[in-house]
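Input/output pair, single chain:
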Amino acid sequence: MTGENDMRSATRTAAAMTDPAGASAKLSPTALPMADAARLLSAAGGQRVTVEMLEADIAAGAPTNPDGTLNLVSYAAWLVREAARGD
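Output:
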């Protein structure tokens, strides 16, 4: 259940995010721009996540959408597979 709770927290965090002008932004956890994904993962996970960290994961094989956005579900699944491999 922890993963499910984490995803709910991330979704709530995404819904509450605002753009730089202060307007409420509608973000989809299945299509996040890298900067938004980094902010959301940092807020939800309690550890700082940078765009550079996400880009390094992408270079190592993490999936992205055709438009370059990040699907949090696919990314989380990739992270689990990578952890199970035990690099």
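The chain has a mean pLDDT of 83. The helical segments are 2-16, 34-45, 51-59, 72-85.
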